Amino acid sequence: MSNDQYIEIVNDRENNLKNVSLKIPKNKLTVFTGVSGSGKSSIVFDTIAQEAGRQLNSTYSSYTRLFLPKYKRPDADEIHNLSTAIIIDQKPLGGNARSILGTISDINPLFRILFSRFGQPKYGDASNAFSFNDPLGMCPKCDGVGRSYVLKLDKAIDYNKSLAEGAVLLPGYTTKNSYYLQTILTSGLFDNDKPVKDFNKQEMDDLLNGNKKVKVQIKGVEHEVNYEGIEHQFYRVNFTASGSTSDSAKKRMAKFAEMAECAECHGMRYNKKVLASKINGKNIFDLTNMQLDDLLKEMDNFKSGQMTSIVNDIQSRVGDLVDIGLDYLSLTRETTSLSGGESQRVKTVKYLSNSLTGLTYILDEPSTGLHPRDVHRLNDLLLKLRDNGNTVLVVEHDPDVIKIADHIIDLGPKAGIHGGKITYTGTYEGLLTSDTLTGKYLKNHLPINDSPRPADKFIESSKSSLHNLKNVSLRIPEGLFTVVSGVAGSGKSTLVEQVFSKEYPDSVIIDQTPLHANSRSNSATYTGIMAEIRKLFAKANDVKDGLFSYNSDGACPECNGKGTIEMNLSFMENSEIECPICHGGRYDLKVLDYKLKGKNIVEVMNMTIEEAVDFFEDKKISSKLASIQNVGLDYLSLGQTLNTLSGGESQRLKIAKELNKKGNVFILDEPTTGLHVSDIENIIRIINDLVDKGNTVVVIEHNTDVMRSADWIIDMGPDGGSRGGSILYEGVVSGIKDVAKSYTAKYLF
Ligand code: ADP
Ligand code: ADP
Ligand code: ZN
Ligand code: ZN
């Protein structure tokens, strides 16, 4: 192979990388392995994706660059043969209330064409008429959102009072001389002294939504005005254009109104004319609201005559979503409610259908949220991306994904300063026999827990039918380690996080949502260590402890404790550069004269947790450091900001903070995310520690080692969506063996 068949990096020093040089074959599937913190992301994201983005940006004019994301030059000597890089990450798709799976996957527009051409009766002659985002297609009451604010009448009106006594409680009606109140009282429409509860239907309608010309007396002067009912007025004042509301309006409304399913369209978003137009007895909502695997079959009935080619298009796109394991979703599902793993799979499918080649796709742990049964579907997709002529780079811990790599690059040997080197490159078979942690642990499997803690007392939620649940309740044994398993979409998060934890508000959900979006909190402030360190510095130097905070008196005056300053060059892109005064240290230089055991505060903040354990003797600090060390994050530095932590690292830091609590119910959502096979025993030990301290731990997991180690397993299924939502088995792990319907059982033994 000639050299342009490789991406080549020479002497990479990003984060913890130790002058790493490597070649990555192009048009192949390369998997990066290694313990978390070893440097995988530093290569893939901080070097390759950064540099590809930067090079792409530099092809634009400086004016255009103002509007593009900012990239910094990676700390490496040379980088060759990059192609445009596309990151398919697990950031939730987000969007707004108008964004649904059907719009984001470009499938809804195909349905619009189908109905505008073949729907009966015909409606509109543009396909826009079948869009709930278009005035022609949207429900007029909710503007196509499917929900709207509904006035809470019992909060808006005191029914026992008359209008003259102040029955209307809404803003604008509560002072005697207000325009709105005077309009009502002098309109002649009401008996002002009759309690509202005695109003007849006409009076009530007028009060709420009346809309007529009346003569009124305002400050003694007669006017002819449009009388407007209070409900009508409330909506008009609080809504700006097309259903959007300002923040201040939202605050006003919170007390008087609530979001509820739209009474006109019942959440279907379309107007009556759109919904009346049908093909084979079904309208656009009926079809897009079907679960995807059912929709795929249903569309077979639509293949006739001229419809066939559009239907084929629809089936091919829906088929891709089904193939990746999203068969349980419907096109009407709002994108804001998709999990990180689901979002990533939707994005992957979108890229699959584009015909660009020669790109570099980068995926971070795409197996997240997938049951072992479905990992092969993901594998097919990764290989398809590669076979379309692209380079695919994947950071993964799942042995079943690592197995299919053309090339493996293993980083290590450990995390942080103990990592940052390449420990192996080559095939999967070679990795298994290599002297690396990855190789060693890939072959290891934990046995089924043969001495589970006995279950005697249970905490039980009430029966629920939320989403796909089939009238089931969650029964958790108190003081045990329980795993909830089942294929994606079977109902695990619905039952555990949306039903159980809402009924037990004292339960603590520890998930992977980022801790803080701002760059001012770090592992030391979050865990409470910082406050103790400041006290020690203050005591040793006999000064105020505020001096040792870069968010307070100790801040570098140049950058206000940010460590960076923004360069605003009108003719070039804005960029963040290191503060020239504190050089990123964030502290006022005069604070650096104060020392603790010979070190200044910046030197202390740069220590790793591991180094800090040796440095501090203070009991409070030591026990907090020990908790962080315990969850395997000893490679973090005290000052590392929370916004640089991955989802998995954030989750483990949250666990560290809670580690010393007793008598709680903890809910962990896929705690093995981001964890190397060698760290899995560690997280199992942490869970068991929590249980030994008297806590109840419920873990949603796909990792079979974690399942085997549990005291109790609750398996949901049998499948996703409408074919799931039942509990197939609850009991000790060994007992699941004979449950024929359980997919989980097939992977445990
Ligand atoms: P992996 O992807 O293998 O989990 P990373 O490349 O994310 O590892 O991290 C390697 C090391 O670099 C870790 O010690 C990590 O804490 C550190 N690190 C990562 N990002 C940053 C950053 N933005 N600032 C400082 N340290 C970082
Ligand atoms: P799991 O956690 O096992 O992957 P979920 O509880 O997320 O499963 O999903 C169970 C079912 O409920 C699926 O059919 C899913 O599409 C549906 N569902 C989950 N969340 C929502 C939501 N916010 N709105 C509508 N349906 C949802
Ligand atoms: Zn509506
Ligand atoms: Zn500064």
TrEMBL record:
Pfam family, any one: ABC_tran
A cellular component term, taken from the record's GO annotations: cytoplasm
Segment forming the signal sequence: none
SUPFAM superfamilies per the UniProt record, alphabetical: P-loop containing nucleoside triphosphate hydrolases
GO molecular function ontology, one term from the record: DNA binding
Protein family according to the UniProt entry: Belongs to the ABC transporter superfamily. UvrA family.
Protein name from the UniProt record: UvrABC system protein A
Species this chain originates from: Companilactobacillus ginsenosidimutans
